[in-house]
Amino acid sequence: MPIIAIAWCVFILAAIPASLFLWNLALYSQPPASSGCEPVSILIPARNEEHSIENSIRAALGSRNVDLELIVLDDHSKDRTADIVKRIAAEDKRLRLFAAPPLPPGWCGKQFACSVLAHLATKPVLCFIDSDVELTRTGVARMIKALRRGNSGLISGFPQQLTLTALEQLLLPLMHFLLLGFLPLSGMRRVLHPAFGAGCGQIFVADREAYNRAGGHAAIRCSRHDGLTLPKAFRRAGIMTDLCDATSIASCRMYRNAHEVFFGLLKNADEGIASPGRILPFSCMLLVGQVLPVLLFAYAWTAIPSHTLRLLSTLALVASYLPRLIASFRFRQPLLAGFFHPLAILLLLAIQWYALLRSVLRIPATWKGRSYSTT
Question: What per-residue string of b and e applies to 210-221 under the rule 16 or more CB within 10 Å gives b?
């Protein structure tokens, strides 16, 4: 294939997600302000979370413009999680702690914990947050306002991702790139098809009636990727879901070192990009559109004196970097890590292909001391 034809392919596969990313930025808005007092159950599943649970609870208890109850389910923790929650519960009666029943066969631990929490809740709105999420004072109220305004039964958003180590800073910002670069939000809000379902498992706000009608977390009992599967379950039940920019309403330190980043992304990869039907097209799109622009640019400006090739390679390079660099400012991500975007894509794809290999070999995924089948 002539080099100019290759350059056109590289440019097109870089420009499409960049264009969609820019278009989606206008639609991926922050939740509106709220002055009401919505009743809500804030629900936190916790398993060995002594390093983060106190900050998460105290932030949730500081929520304004809501009538809240806060329920924590201790999922057989082997550390001081339960003791920390008990101490805070003695100070604030809005907080209740329960111990999780034994995990039934066929259930993922988090989905079972969330299902139990939903049955314990008494309010008409359910807010599920991970134990490493810290809400701002108006975060929950604003999420509920966005839920009501959008006429959906479930809303989610990506909190500000706090990243300190190198692998965190390289890989975790890709969540925004993949979401906004490949999911048309305008279609998501018009079309009910489950393929448009997406979210972030770190925070979900649901209307209780809609949650029950969708089957709740029991509908995704074996899933390790509730960020994708819970919105799809709602949509299969005929209930719209929505997304908002949660950067200003919550923060999360999801992983704390390279080991956690690798195995955290690995554990549910086969339900996302690493699924057999997705991994090849996604790999081609990402390699050609996000990695090759750097190589093409270097080749065009050092090997062949072609104005057309140099123009296409420059445009492709700009298109490949543009979403990541814009996201650095919009979503408060490390700017320096953004310049290593092609390396981040290569690392992400390596994890995806490794996850597929493990799935083919039926090597169980493990997380927090539990083992899950990948088939």
Answer: bbeebbbbebbb
